[in-house]
Design goal:
Length: 109
């Protein structure tokens, strides 16, 4: 049950971050794309639709079922995701393997 809570918390955090980004995304040109890789069935489909409507930025939203499914795809660089939502232990593994980029808070008004 605790693992499910952590996944839910991670997804909720990602949703909040996406919504916070909406307020600062007006400076982007229409037709830009945001690539998101997240746990399956964690975000309501309308969240991405609302984001696209408000910003003009298209969301390409891919889902995975486990960290172990997600990791090889990110490691291989098959898609350059802008946002990936791993859980706790995988974050450390991704840090150790230089697969995460530090947030630039100057880009988030």
């Amino acid at each position: 049950m605790m693992k499910k809570f952590h996944r839910l918390f991670a997804a909720a955090t990602a949703a909040v971050l996406l919504l916070l980004m909406v307020s600062g995304c007006k400076q982007y040109e229409p037709n830009e794309v945001l690539y998101v890789y997240n746990w399956g069935e964690y975000l309501d489909e309308t969240v991405n639709e609302m984001f696209e409507e408000e910003t003009g930025i298209k969301v390409i939203y891919d889902e995975y079922t486990t960290n172990e499914d997600m990791y090889p795809k990110v490691e291989a660089g098959a898609t350059a995701y802008d946002v990936v939502c791993p859980s706790d232990y995988m974050i450390q593994k991704m840090l150790d393997n230089d697969l995460l980029q530090e947030l630039n808070f100057d880009n988030m008004p």
